[in-house]
Amino acid sequence: MSTATESFLSETEEHDVVEAIRFAEKQTSGEIRVHLESYNDSDVYKRAQEVFHLLKMDNTKEENGVIVYIAVNLKKFVVYGDAGINKIVGENFWNSTRDLIQKQFKQGNFSQGLIVGIKEIGQVLKTHFPWKVNDKNELSDEISKA
Predict the structure, then answer these.
(1) Rounded CA gap, 94 and 85, in Å?
(2) Over the Cα atoms of the chain, what is R_g?
(3) I want to staple 20 with a disulfide (CB 3.0 to 4.6 A). Which of 16, 73, 95, 118 is the partner?
(4) Strand 31-37 and strand 144-145: pairing?
(5) At what angle do helices 110-128 and 91-106 cross, to 10 degrees?
(6) How far apart, in Å, do the first and last CA atoms of the chain sit?
(7) What distance in Å separates the CA atoms of residue 108 and residue 114, rounded to the nearest whole number?
(8) Hey, what CATH class is 3-145 in?
(9) How far apart are CA 95 and CA 133, in angstroms?
(10) E strand or H helix at 20, and its extent?
(11) b/e sequence 41-76, b meaning 16+ C-beta within 10 Å
(12) Cβ neighbours of residue 134 under 8 Å, at least 6 residues apart?
């Protein structure tokens, strides 16, 4: 793990992002993950798909996982969702969510960008995949790093 990945968020900021994930997931059966890594290849979208699979996000019951993948070294990120949510929301949702995050990132507000994006993702997941009594948290809420 690179120092760039480790220093992308402070401990407090990381805690705030994880809390935003937990709050969003209390209202939906969907799963949200944030993944940070030092990545130097140009195809960040393809890498986001690979990480999505490696983190087993494609194993959720309703195919409603979403990852915010950040290639720290390249200063690029991808918001990627599984098939179940993609059937419902369409490309405009992903673009508008990306734009919300990017606006904050451009100002150096990385944790705020993630929190704003997670809230937006959570609202859409809540609408289309509401929390049910028997729902369980299928995946870790912690930020993964490589």
Answers:
(1) 11
(2) 14
(3) 118
(4) parallel
(5) 160
(6) 5
(7) 11
(8) alpha beta
(9) 32
(10) helix 11-25
(11) eeebeebbbebbeebebeebebbbbbbbbbbbeeeb
(12) none
Structural contact between residues 101 and 78, judged by C-beta atoms closer than 8 angstroms: no
Q: List the structure tokens of 45.
A: 């979208």
Tokens representing 62?
A: 């309703």
Could you give the CA distance from residue 67 to residue 70 in angstroms, rounded to a whole number?
A: 9
Q: Which residues contact 119 (CB under 8 A, 6 or more apart)?
A: 20, 24
The residues spanned by each domain of the chain are 3-145
Note down pLDDT in tens along the chain; length 146 residues: 567 788 899 999 999 999 999 999 999 989 999 999 998 887 999 999 999 999 999 988 889 999 999 999 899 999 999 999 989 987 778 889 999 999 999 999 999 999 999 999 999 999 999 987 777 777 777 899 98
Strands 65-71, 31-37: pairing is parallel
Distance CA 37, CA 145 (A): 5
CB 25 within 8 A of CB 122: yes
